[in-house]
Amino acid sequence: MDEPPQLKPRPTLLGMRLYGPPISSDVSVQFGPGLTAFYGRNGAGKTSILNALRNAFAGRAKYITQLIMQADHGSVAYDWVVRSIKDNAPPASSYELRYQTEDVDVIRHAILQWFRSGGRYFDPSLSTDELDPTFIDELTKLTSIAVLPAGGVAPSWEVWLCMPPHGSRAAACDEAATRLVNLWREEDERVERLTTEEEQLEAQYDAGAVTEEEYDKRHSEIEAAWKEAAAQDYDSVYEPVAAFAWDWPWSDESAAVRRHTSRMLGDGLPVPVAKLFTTGTIPFELEDDEDKSDLDRATAVKLMARLDSRTEEQKKDQATDELLRHWVGELESDVNSIYSTLLQDAPLLTLEMSDPSRWLTEKPLQWIVRYGHEAVPLTSLSRAEGRWGRIAIRRALDFESSIVASVIDEPEAALHRAAERHMSIGIEALTTFGPQLITATHSPEVLNSSATSCIHVSKTGGKTCVGQIPDLRTETLENLGLSPSDLLGLYRIFLLVEGVHDEIVLRTFCGPALDEARVKIVPMHGAKKLPGSIESQVLFDLTDAHIVAVLDDIRIQEVNRVWDEAVKLSEANELDSAMTHLTSAFRGRKGNEYEWITNWLARALKRQVASRVEPYGFQARDIIEYLPVKVLVPKARKSWADLREEHDQEKASLDKARQDFKQWLIKTYKADMSVSAIQRGADAATGMPEEFRKFSYRIREIGSRRSAVR
Q1: Contact, 242 vs 121, CB < 8 A?
Q2: Both 16 and 150 in a single domain?
């Protein structure tokens, strides 16, 4: 049997930008090389993002969307770009492009054509100037493209060449982006300076500090400066992102163009700069789990196309019937291998083939499952069996590696837990050699897979927001004692405590309340560094749960009073005043706890998650002081109050290690501060301390609230 042709590398889908309805906000996501999972509460916008992806691959300009792809030299996408530039070339340069240039020269020709036609100015009617050859050389070597859906009834796409994200090693491209950013910064500084001068002049005039004549003179000077600033707008500036910004159909307002362009320069994805061509076809597909097209017919079309692709010599040497039956057997084997990988206890799919001589009058091929003498078609299988069977067939039929990515919405649907675990392992294996997989899911099995890149989707003020989880698997999440699924909403409250000792005591005294409120205790292990660490980003940005921070040795009533006032100021759009109130209230207070809680609450205000954040404090200076002293420090024969007083009196003369109360107890009285000793102390306590009873009531109340609105 003849072998299938050598496959070219698949293009990689780097990410997607989405603007406007149905998201009502700017969304930028980076897709992982294997599995990318959107997770979040129902109604947050996960399915809307997947639908935008589906429409983009279908060439429908239903939303303003950019698909950012890596098109390496020699890939299907790169060869298509070069071929399409030649096919779309004007007659004057068509012959030269078709027969006399290398691929890089074809790309260079398209770049020059675009910039020379005005594609580097905010105002294309300006006179031309010299193009920076270094910048052109860098662009010629680049291999990322943006595919923008532009069709309505008929599919259509614009294809743009992209420059790397700002901060890359492409010096000329970086300089171009920096120049644009500096231009905007200079404009901001100019506007701020002139606005301040106007306000100061008005105030001086109202106070009688300047005469009317002086006022008129300076006012005229400021007005002249405004006019000069307006004349110095972007018009005469060469900027490679200019034409892309203005070429978009969604806005002709400079403020909107600037806002969206600024976000593109900072979202970590390549930025479109030169339009290469417009096309009605693309050589890559999105495999969609909602695609209900006729797979029997699709299978026949694929096999017939494979027959037709044979050379005349092969056609003479090979018997068509025999070859077809051989291919059918191979295809069955491939499909069932994929099917059983994805679905636990998957039935055996059979591809029935009628006699080729009757293909014009009968259905040539049909996928069925045999149960005894009964043949059940694919369309009559159960929801899970039919869904994963269709995915397996489409994947096996991808002879040309044209599928760039697969979209599966809620892969856990209609699966029991054991089947869900089986499926998560299967889709991880599926992405190893196949196309990328993009899903919206609530499945802990999928989210916790080492192959999954997780993206949190939430809604703020009716607008969808996405939070790209950085690579936390070996660092942050494990340090926090979390898995990605913990961020999904399985917990209503994340309870931040200083260490394992706090966790043991709280779990022993308040266990039933914590379980009832669905609390996840997160020991920070020296939480003084939390406010500036990546853990804060995870808990603030990538979960909708409430966050309670528990600290010892603080006056909680005072902290809550200050925090409530800061929140009121923030809600009144007075963030600067809120920050000042919060930081000044505890300035000069002794103890790391005050510094910790001040910085952490300030960060919560900045991230606009104040409604989900609550500080809580216990009066004792350390949580061990709620345990029987005789269990932890049996040799002391003193109360906790006496031991504290003794330590405070000696503190000035102690070395650095013994400044810490627990270390002093260990070295002075041979105290046992091991985890097992703390647990013994908690178990030996008689009754629940009143402070912990109040804490349990508070946790139950927080847990009963509706999810915080972000």
Answers
A1: yes
A2: yes
Domain check: are 413 and 556 in the same one?
no
Same domain? 33 vs 157: yes
- Structural domain ending residue among the three candidates 468, 484, 507: 468
If asked whether residues 333 and 386 sit together in one domain, one would say yes
Residue 548, classed as helix, strand or coil, is strand
Beta partners for 321? none
In a domain, 174, yes or no: no
- The angle formed by the CA atoms of residues 474, 469 and 526, to the nearest 5 degrees, is 55
The boundaries of the domain holding residue 676 are 627-684
* Residue entry with tokens 């092969």: 314
pLDDT tens readout for residues 502-548: 999 999 999 988 988 888 888 876 545 444 444 555 667 667 788 88
Length of the chain: 710
What backbone torsions phi and psi does residue 279 show, to the nearest 5 degrees?
-140, 160
> Angle CA(393)–CA(394)–CA(399) in degrees, nearest 5?
105
* pLDDT tens for each residue of 391-421: 999 999 998 888 999 999 999 998 998 999 9
Please check whether residues 546 and 490 belong to one and the same domain.
yes
Task: Note the pLDDT tens digit of each residue in 100-146.
Answer: 668 888 898 888 888 777 666 555 555 556 677 888 888 888 889 99
The pTM score is: 0.69
Token pair, residue 512, equals: 């039933």
Cα–Cα distance between 57 and 435 in angstroms, integer? 15
Overall number of domains in the chain:
5
Q: Is residue 172 part of a domain?
A: no
Do 516 and 703 meet the contact criterion of CB atoms below 8 Å apart?
A: yes
Residue 351 within a domain: yes
Phi, psi of 521 (to 5 degrees): -80, 130
pLDDT at 483: 62
Residue entry with tokens 């996405």: 466
As a whole number of angstroms, the distance between CA 159 and CA 146 comes to 6
* Rounded Cα–Cα distance for residues 89 and 87 (Å): 6
Q: Is there a domain that residue 273 lies in?
A: yes
* Rounded-to-integer distance, Cα 425 and Cα 342, Å: 8
